[in-house]
Amino acid sequence: MARGRMIAATVADDKRFNELPIDAALVYLMAIPQLDRDGLILGEPAVLWGTACRRRSDLLPRMVDIIAAWVSSGLVISYKTDDGDTILYFTGFQKNQAMTHYDREAESRFPCPPNYVRTPKGLVP
């Protein structure tokens, strides 16, 4: 997992983000530092909870709804791997990262989202 991810100041003005229910917004922000270099994370509800907010037991029963809110807002794309795992792609990830050290970070263990390819500077449609 990558460390040191920053939240862009533009989050204060992002309409889609600010329309999320408060618990979905909280977990979204808590998930960002856990994303890999491509903005991907395992999206199984219990695993995501354990990765991003495991000390907030009150959020575990709401994770399915939280993920659904992200997807319906367009902030996240959800897709399945050939093995049936759910992967989440945070669509605004690259535009809010400098990507200057992309080649120094560990490669993603997840396949690309549908209709995306990996380049030396990250995912592109």
Instruction: State the helical fraction.
Output: 25-40%
Describe the sheet with the most strands. Answer: 3 strands, antiparallel
Calculate the mean pLDDT score and round it: 89
Low-confidence stretches: none
Using the alpha-carbon principal axes, give the shape: globular
State the separation between the terminal residues, measured CA to CA: 23 Å
State the total count of DSSP E strands: 5
Number of H/I helices = 4
Work out the strand percent.
Answer: 15-25%
Q: In which order are the strands of the major sheet placed?
A: 1-3-2
Structural class: alpha+beta
Q: Supply Rg.
A: 14 Å
Order of helices and strands: HHEHHEEEE
Any descriptors?
125 residues, 26% helix, alpha+beta, three-stranded antiparallel sheet, 4 helices
Descriptive account of the structure:
With 125 residues, the chain is of the alpha+beta class. The chain has four helices and five strands, in the order H-H-E-H-H-E-E-E-E. Strand 2 and strand 3 form a beta hairpin. The longest helix has 11 residues. The two termini are 23 Å apart.
